[in-house]
Amino acid sequence: MKNNIFINIKEYVAKRKSEIAEKVAKTFPMPQIAIIQVGDLEASNRYVRNKIKDCEEVGIRTLHTKLPESTSASTLKYCFANAPTLRPFSMSDSVKSETSAFSLGL
User: What is the mean pLDDT of the chain?
Assistant: First the structure.
């Protein structure tokens, strides 16, 4: 007989956010995340909005910069080179219409 495990996703997410919020509240300096979004795809906009909402719910400060789709790779590299506290944790090889997220001070 198989064990059927039912997980209420909304309850699980609420519990995890509460646990994360407790850890964040004890963290100094305040954790931050910087999101640099290139382009204006609706799916990317929605994804970024949801990440910002999640961060706000647990007490993580968000910094969102939206650049036009025409932003060149060299301009983007210049932005990163002049922001030495940014550490990439997810970056696409392609610049156009991609969202890259960077942690700041974590």
Answer: 78
Domain covering 29-104 in this structure, CATH number: 3.40.50.10860
Domain assignments of the chain as residue spans, ordered by start: 29-104
Q: What is the pTM of this model?
A: 0.66
Higher pLDDT, 6 or 91: 6
d(CA 69, CA 43): 14
Residue 59: predicted pLDDT: 95
Of 58, 49, 76, the residue nearest 21 (C-alpha): 58
* Single-letter amino acid code for the residue at 22: E
* 3-state SS, one letter per residue, for 56-104: HHHCCEEEEEEECCCCCHHHHHHHHHCCCCEEEEECCCCCCCCEEEEEE
Structure tokens at 49: 């909005």
